[in-house]
């Protein structure tokens, strides 16, 4: 019989303070998230100093809540997994230092986790991985295609050259005077509009799986500016629908092409923008025409959480990867 492994996960890379306990890398025992959206809303984006301060205030409370929800004690915990990067350096430092202090005080192994690896492993809490697999990561700071031939092996075959998809969503939302975070608001508006404005799609050079959304964002902003200057009426629903159609077209087309080229057995979607209804529907429609299974996590696992960090941390722990107490936050950590 397999020994049961309980990993405590800590995530503070941006504006969510989260702690979770995962059993055997697959089963969520507890998953507690304290969101800061209300604090950052009036600024139209995340303010790093405010995020860090909230993490300091919340981390102990969230930790206690995670143990209470799980009905476990420190004696049950095999290791502590924590997001070491990428993210906001001040925010990351709160989680890293909390994890280091706990690892020292409780004499537990410490395991550093890459934030994007966490988003990928959120899917394993729903379904076991089939290798080789392709992961499409779409979030506020990341748009990447990652090929995995085995657990813990990451090969980035496509990434954004400028703005991430989520970043473009937030900037366009700001131009339309929509609240932060902009993605869900544009998604809702797009469902009511028509795709009647021709916005650019950056396919880049032949065979490239990289992404670029900067030109699209500029085109949308120019369209809004020009209409305002000329006093022309603009239907916000149609702008949202046309913008979203351009983003989704590029994301889905490149993902399908990469999945077929690398002969993968599974495609998984990860990151906050994976909650986008338009993207989910189009991916499901296109992959239903192939024989490649598509896995999209439930909404609660798309946004930042600690269950995904503990899930990815379980693999690192099982593979013997350890971080010493010299572990530091690395805001530009690469996925390897």
Strand order of the largest sheet: 3-2-1-4-5
Number of domains: 2
The count of strands amounts to: 10
Summarize the main sheet: 5 strands, mixed
- SSE pattern: EEEHHEHEHEEEHHHHEHEH
Q: Judging from the principal axes of the Cα atoms, what is the shape?
A: globular
Q: How would you name the CATH homologous superfamily of the largest domain? A: ATPase, nucleotide binding domain
CATH topology of the largest domain: Nucleotidyltransferase, domain 5
Share of helix among residues? 40-55%
Radius of gyration: 20 Å
User: Which architecture of the largest domain would the CATH scheme give at its second level?
Assistant: 2-Layer Sandwich
Uncertain segments = none
> What is the CATH top level name of the largest domain?
Alpha Beta
Class by SSE composition: alpha/beta
From the N-terminal CA to the C-terminal CA, the straight-line distance is 32 Å
Note the beta-strand portion: 15-25%
Number of helices: 10
Mean pLDDT: 94
């Amino acid at each position: 019989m397999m020994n049961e492994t309980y990993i405590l996960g800590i995530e503070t890379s941006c504006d969510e303070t989260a702690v979770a306990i995962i059993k055997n890398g697959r089963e969520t025992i507890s998953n507690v998230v304290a969101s800061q959206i209300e604090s950052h809303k009036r600024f139209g984006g995340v303010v790093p100093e405010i995020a860090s301060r909230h993490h300091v205030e919340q981390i102990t409370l969230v930790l206690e809540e995670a143990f209470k929800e799980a009905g476990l004690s420190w004696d049950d915990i095999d290791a502590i997994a924590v997001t070491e990067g990428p993210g906001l350096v001040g925010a990351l430092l709160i989680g890293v230092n909390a994890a280091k202090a706990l690892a020292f005080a409780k004499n537990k192994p410490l395991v550093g986790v890459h934030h994007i690896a966490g988003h990928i492993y959120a899917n394993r809490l729903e379904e076991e991985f089939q290798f080789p697999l392709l992961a499409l990561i779409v979030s506020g700071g990341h748009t990447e295609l990652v090929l995995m031939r085995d657990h813990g092996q990451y090969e980035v075959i496509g990434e954004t050259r400028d703005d991430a998809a989520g970043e473009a969503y937030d900037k366009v939302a700001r131009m339309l005077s929509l609240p932060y975070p902009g993605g869900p608001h544009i998604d809702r508006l797009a469902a009511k509009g028509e795709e009647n404005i021709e916005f650019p799609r950056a396919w880049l050079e032949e065979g490239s799986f990289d992404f670029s959304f900067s030109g699209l964002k500029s085109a949308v902003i120019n369209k809004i500016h020009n209409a305002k200057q000329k006093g022309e009426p603009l239907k916000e629903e149609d702008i949202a629908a046309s913008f979203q159609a351009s983003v989704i077209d590029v994301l889905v087309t490149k993902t399908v092409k990469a999945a077929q080229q690398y002969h993968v057995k599974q495609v998984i979607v990860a990151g906050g923008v994976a909650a986008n209804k338009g993207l989910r529907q189009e991916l499901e429609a296109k992959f239903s025409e192939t024989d490649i299974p598509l896995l999209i996590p439930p909404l609660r696992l798309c946004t930042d959480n600690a269950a995904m960090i503990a899930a990815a941390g379980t693999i690192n722990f099982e593979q013997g990867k350890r971080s010493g107490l010299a572990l530091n936050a690395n805001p530009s950590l690469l996925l390897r």
